[in-house]
Amino acid sequence: MSRSPSLPDRPQLELDPEMSDRERLAALRQHYKRLVTVNEELETRIDEADDRKESLLDEVDTLKRRNEVLKTSSLYVATVEEITDDGIVIKQHGNNQEVLTEPSPHLDAELEAGDRVAINDSFAVQSILDDETDARAQAMEVEESPSVTYADIGGIDEQVREVREAVEDPLVNPEQFATVGIEPPSGVLLYGPPGTGKTMLAKAVANETDATFIKMAGSELVRKFIGEGSRLVRDLFDLAAEREPAVIFIDEIDAVAAKRTDSKTSGDAEVQRTMMQLLSEMDGFDDRGEIRIMAATNRFDMLDEAILRPGRFDRLIEVPKPDVEGRERILEIHTSGMNVADGVDFHSLAEGLEDHSGADIASLATEAGMYAIRDERTEVREEDFEAARERLAESTDTPVGALRYQY
Q1: Fewest Cβ atoms nearer than 10 Å: which of 69, 120, 349, 391?
Q2: Which neighbouring-strand residues pair with 100?
């Protein structure tokens, strides 16, 4: 039987009969060393083979588990609606189909109304699932505080003061409200034209407080399937309750809180259902605890009266376009990091920016810097600001921030 070529050859000992005893001893010693070397190499190969065997066994186990999963029928998620003497009523997620079924015997004593369960194709309850907050709600939590501070917001000092009183102070100094004997405002609604600083105010609150900040757009609450939007609203407030103190900011709230109509379409009905859940969470039977609500809209006239009443939004704060002093302050803020030439008259420049928002003025500062760069200068002069102002005036039909560069 031939020896495997991958294995080392076994050393052969050949002794010459005419060798002296000294020569025989030396040959035996040399032969022994070769045997030790071959033995070490064989042990190394055995260890490698054992490791390879373990790796292959693990791979086989993994493949077996995957095969079992592939052969197992998928389970569906449902909610236990009611427990009766005849069985349990469950509602399957997605299609909202209600079914009367029987639980597995080992789960009969553990099931309660409201439990999330896994069911098979026959609607039999297979296991109880943990309550889980919608992943979309968790994604709306702001992990890192924005860099915006109150000092970065100009022209709306009175609005900043009111927001700090209504949102920040109850979180930072709740004892003061308890001493006076009043409940802090439950919600703040910011309304006004676009670009006036409503969202920046919310970012500043997120930066200045240690509370959990949860932000969302109103359109994100409008979902396709029945009940999905209201569930997301409920999960958002549950997440805020777990993380309190917390601030919930709803931008463009008019997308989900517009005036109710007699429309019978399924889309409008779902939006109204979501709004009703929002109203319930804002002013329900349960105490909200240390949860403050902020919202912003450009279309105050579209909002439903129910969401504007005290108890839901106790403070309605208008954020108008800035006056001349506010425009000058905004110019100073947005040019603080620019290399501006001496002698630039911000006050005169602000007087010529009547009816411009803070966003318009920020765009003006960027435009002025672009003129300096075009002329290969590192200093922004007053004529650059004048040229940028003229471009803004000529581009009133073009959205701010989307100006065409036509020089």
Answers
A1: 69
A2: 89
Q: Quote the tokens at residue 14.
A: 């050949």
Q: Which helix (H) or strand (E) holds 87?
A: strand 87-92
Question: How far is Cα 331 from Cα 334, in angstroms, rounded to an integer?
Answer: 5
Q: pTM here? A: 0.61
- In sign, the C-alpha dihedral spanning 114, 245, 214, 280 is positive
Rounded distance between C-alpha atoms, residue 60 and residue 82, angstroms: 44
pLDDT at site 308: 82
Ranked by mean pLDDT, the top range of 108-122, 268-282, 292-306 is: 292-306
Q: Distance (Å, rounded) from C-alpha 26 to C-alpha 367?
A: 93
As a whole number, mean pLDDT of residues 297-323 equals 83
- The verdict on 314 and 329 lying in the same domain is no
Pair 208, 81 in one domain: no
Enter the tokens of residue 396: 């009133």
Q: Which two tokens stand for residue 158?
A: 């009175």
Q: Is 196:247 a contact under the CB 8 Å cutoff?
A: no
Residues 302 and 184 in one domain: yes
Determine the Cα–Cα distance for residues 359 and 313; give it in Å rounded to an integer: 26
**Cα–Cα distance for residue pair 281/170, rounded to 1 Å:** 19
- Is 6 a domain residue? no
Whether residue 214 contacts residue 246, with contact meaning beta carbons closer than 8 Å, is answered with yes
State the pLDDT at residue 57: 92
- Split at pLDDT 50, 70, 90, the class of 144 is low
Answer yes or no: are the C-beta atoms of 83 and 113 closer than 8 Å.
yes
Find the CATH number of the domain harbouring 255.
3.40.50.300
Look at strands 98-101 and 87-92 and give their pairing: antiparallel
Burial string for 138-157 (b: 16+ CB within 10 Å, else e) reads eebebeeebebebebbbbbe
What's the pLDDT at 335? 85
Mean of pLDDT values over 63-75: 77
Domain end call among 132, 150, 169 = 132
Span 371-398, pLDDT tens digits? 888 888 888 888 888 888 888 777 654 4
Q: Are residues 306 and 198 in the same domain?
A: yes
